[in-house]
Design brief:
The chain is an alpha+beta fold. The protein has one domain. Helices cover 57% and strands 13% of the residues. Helix 3 packs across helix 4 and helix 4 packs across helix 7. The longest helix is centred in the middle third of the chain and has 17 residues. It starts with 8 loop residues before the first helix and ends with a helix.
């Protein structure tokens, strides 16, 4: 019997708490991020592009499920940590096409893979998210 991850917080958390499943899904998903503080991260624009939805759709999910997403790895960088990320992007010569123009932003939301997958389990608008769900349902 398939679980409806869009409605069951318990089923979502069961997937997210399984390190083996997370590793396998991350390999299969092929999400291109950048390693920051020992983990791969992506920005809202990259998540939107991956799922072929608008950044506004991602913002709506952040508004509705922000607590759950923060619990699972979404965070907003400010101050020194944000400057550290900006310097890392500059040092690696990462293009704006991959991360957008973040040079002057005072804060920046980032998703690690766990938060990215959590968002994928919540979304209903994307055809790509349905394909990704096949890996863990």
């Amino acid at each position: 019997m398939n679980k409806d991850l869009t409605t069951s917080a318990i089923d979502r958390q069961n997937v997210l708490n399984n390190p083996y499943a997370l590793a396998e899904i991350e390999k299969a998903a092929g999400v291109d991020g950048i390693v920051f503080e020992g983990r791969a991260i992506v920005l809202k624009e990259q998540v939107a592009a991956f799922f072929e939805v608008s950044p506004r759709t991602i913002e709506n999910y952040l508004g509705r499920f922000g607590d759950e997403l923060r619990q699972n790895g979404y965070e907003v960088l400010r101050g020194n940590r944000l400057n550290k990320l900006k310097n890392l992007l500059r040092a690696q010569d990462v293009t704006e096409a991959n991360f957008g123009n973040i040079a002057k932003t005072p804060q920046l939301g980032i998703f690690d893979f766990r938060a990215f997958l959590n968002l994928a389990m919540l979304m209903v608008e994307s055809g790509r998210v349905r394909l990704l769900r096949k890996f863990y349902c």
